[in-house]
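Morning F.,

Quick status update on the modeling queue. The single chain you submitted on Monday has been processed. Sequence for confirmation:
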Amino acid sequence: MTDHAVLNPAVPRLTSLSHGGGCGCKIAPGVLSDLLKRSVPLPAFPDLLVGTETADDAAVYRLNDEQAIVATTDFFMPIVDDPYDFGRIAATNALSDVYAMGGKPILALALVGMPINVLPHDVIAAVLRGGEDVCTQAGIPVAGGHSIDSVEPIYGLAALGVVHPQRVKRNAAAKAGDVLVLGKPLGVGVLSAALKKNQLDDAGYAAMIAHTTKLNRPGTELAALPGVHALTDVTGFGLLGHTLELARGAGLSAHLHYADLPWIAGVEAFAAAGVITGASGRNWASYGESIRLSDGLPAVAQALLTDPQTSGGLLVACAPDAVDDVLAIFRADGFDDVAVIGEMRDVSDGKPRVEVA
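Structure tokens below.
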């Protein structure tokens, strides 16, 4: 297997300097929920269209009848050892939250924490260059930022976007009968675990980078479809966690079809061999009581469904008659793995959940 470390053996591997990587660094959803409950409620701001009241991907503030600002921030520790790739992945992941609200990015600010006396300056510069190149691809500048001397390497963006107030796509507006569409294949957390164990070959690494650096630009166009009711992206809480957010926000039950889920090549075999992340277990401990897994699923299903995704795909809840348009928008932007994975249904007991069969 190939060691995708920094070529200079005197330079420490980026992943060796951090206790977690990518969106697997996220605070477990149950712990985060407890922390947020302790926050003081916000006063009423009539123009704050999206705040902390739901588990949405970004804040949205209305400027006027035609314009609203989408604001988000996202940063994490290295998921790979190549500094340029780390910067690209982190920037792509941060911009995804703007797209997940239906917005179009307009600028970004870099958030940088680096062990200055441990990493050579050219390594740190490569991280920044990776982020800048992704922003250039998205058509926006990195217009500033903030940096600190940190024990662990950290990189990400504060990103701003714009959206028409009537096109904001929240993660809490799904309707019973909606079809669920997923834009990217799953398994990034498993591949990152394989990388740390030096078990990921060149093809696996290339696939991992291709998916994690692919901008979720279809979100902007999806926002214009009246049949698209809810939108989010699948990141650190895994497919189950982010689907559960859709269900709880709408007061519905989400039903996923395991056989229809798209996986990055090799992921299922790695998971079957025990190559998974610790975040999978933390995710399940946080929300497993709201999940129903049917008998007959593979033994690794729970680990795979809770696998933390870094820069994962958009998850769309849309009316059945909008599915063809949604799929066409994804495919036109090169999302060849886009898949219909389930539907939203009413609940009879008032308890939103996710069921997988």
